[in-house]
Amino acid sequence: MFTILPVKNGLDNVSGFFCQGVSAGFKPNGKEDVAFIRTDKPCDISAVFTTNVFQAAPIKHYLRYPKGFQTNFILMNAKNANAMTGAEGIKDIETIFENLKIKFPHIENPIMSSTGVIGCRLNVEKLSLAFDKFDFLAKNSHSTASAIMTTDSFKKEICLKVELENGEFFHIAAICKGAGMINPAMATMLCFILTDADIPKVDMDTLLPKAVELSFNAVSVDGDTSTNDTVFLMSNQQSGNYDKEAFREALNLITKELSLMLVKDGEGATKLVAFEVSGAKSIHEAQVAAKALSNSLLVKTALFGEDPNWGRIASTIGASGVTCNEETLVIHYDNVLIYSNTHRSLDAETEKKAAAVMKKDSFKIHCELGVGAFSFTAYGCDLGHEYVKINADYRT
Amino acid sequence: MFTILPVKNGLDNVSGFFCQGVSAGFKPNGKEDVAFIRTDKPCDISAVFTTNVFQAAPIKHYLRYPKGFQTNFILMNAKNANAMTGAEGIKDIETIFENLKIKFPHIENPIMSSTGVIGCRLNVEKLSLAFDKFDFLAKNSHSTASAIMTTDSFKKEICLKVELENGEFFHIAAICKGAGMINPAMATMLCFILTDADIPKVDMDTLLPKAVELSFNAVSVDGDTSTNDTVFLMSNQQSGNYDKEAFREALNLITKELSLMLVKDGEGATKLVAFEVSGAKSIHEAQVAAKALSNSLLVKTALFGEDPNWGRIASTIGASGVTCNEETLVIHYDNVLIYSNTHRSLDAETEKKAAAVMKKDSFKIHCELGVGAFSFTAYGCDLGHEYVKINADYRT
Q: Which of residues 287-316 of B touch A (CB under 8 A)?
């Protein structure tokens, strides 16, 4: 038995970690745009990266370290993804760390993590000048979370305290950025998870990908995948306490919660929708149909318009290639039956009820396929005018 | 040798065919919403249908006829797709044709084709009342093309006169509807191609799917596929003239031209973009990458914003799963080199030139992958505020 409690102030709770965000002057509004996370001594790190073949320079730089390496420093920046920058992009990272070493000589196997525009060289000099502003003993989760924001409309921080039966406890905390481009392959999303649990490296390597699969990879804002997505899990084992089941549950909770924040912050999104597909022939087919719904542009605009146009739901499932048929399909919006074989046309009453469900900030669209026993839930948001505005003007 | 000439007035040129659109009162503005195409005597017909498993009732009704059947009547309606309507949907079609037979006793194996909202029963009575307005000897391509329009902002009609070397000639003409939901699998799109060429049925059956693959299936507006898409090719062989190569070329021209009209009419679209991918490892990979570009929401919004943000182009190709790498990739906007291994950052001059290209109504984005010898061109449009507006309010 164990208890999981949310606590405030994100990363600050995790013993032995320090972090801070400062302004290097890249964001025109003077907000934080460069940050660090560091530990007292080098510690274990696990990572899940983008599936995009054009991996950004920071990812390539990370992958040059030997398997099982330890690190004590992550440097983060916003406004420039350092992607599609070739060998120079990696060289820039090396120069940056040479500069950092002057201010902070103890860095070992430092890691960089970047988000922003693709295809521009980093301004190494300007970025390095920000090191003067770093307080390496700071514990400042808020400014760190703020520094990695791009089109995000709110900071994403979370911390859970896990209490074991014997009164021992550990913390697991995370910050995250992402709003646009979030898709089943977790695009343009950076997530830094820190823990002082006494977790073996092998558990980090197995639990992290699984947690990502169930959370970040189940959400969708617009179906695109980026060059920079990264989820890091760092552990310094400093609490000395650990329980695998408790850690798994807390990690899954954190990643799930953050991924819902990403959807909620879908560029210009006004509502969060859970697309549950059940009765599928296989788990794969359940996943394909659920993600087809959360990615469909016509479904997204119908959600924005609060139009109970279930035809678009049915049509999207029909086009997804999964096994299904008109006779066994049943569609609910929350508890409102909106389509079944014997209930095909929307009467005024149902339409009114469905419209009321769609006015909510979050609700569920449930499609029972009736051809098998497998389910999957994907999360998505609507797409409105704000999405177009934000993305048409992104670089300006 | 042969000559292909465009001629005006669409379907009216094809001998032995009659057509007309009238208003049954389904469109609130009193425009045409029910139409017919008929021939003097039953003639050959070929069809390509949607890949959506929820095929609409009119398609199911068509598929009940024996292979190689002949018909002399197609009835069309807009505003109601008669999809997801179960056995009743098919029964409604039968009732409609019983009613039609009273006005026009000569119908043989009649076909229906519908477009509009999914999941509502047809108003059989109201639709049948429109038969009184039909002039079965009319040749009125314009009103027919108008009757099948839904969110289309312009009528789509085309006719080509094919002159053979010996002075003989035949016509091939088409009308088409489609604007939203157009995707590689040719969604919510109806196309009726008529010819008086003396074409053998076997050539109709082989040339039509090929033409559709190269045209309608290469265009994308929003990546969704519908329950009703149909391309019909009808031939009464009445001219007595035929040349396979000439017919193939004319058919390909017509379908290509219509598919570009569909993209141009993408809901709220302001520009038409050809996405050419060359140097791919296989034709399949060229197609996957080109369609990924034409379907990407982030690419579409960058096009709308006229932002030469080639990072989104590169990122989309990288995410598409095709073989490629940063070193051999070369991106052009029309003739402006925008990315190559030795030309990674946009200088002000290039940015200005690229922005000028993007201001055009139509232009090409060319990505050379540099890993093989295969190419494919997909067509797409931008996505702006109008798309959201049209689709959020579709049913109202």
A: 296-298, 301-302, 304-305, 307, 309-312, 314-316
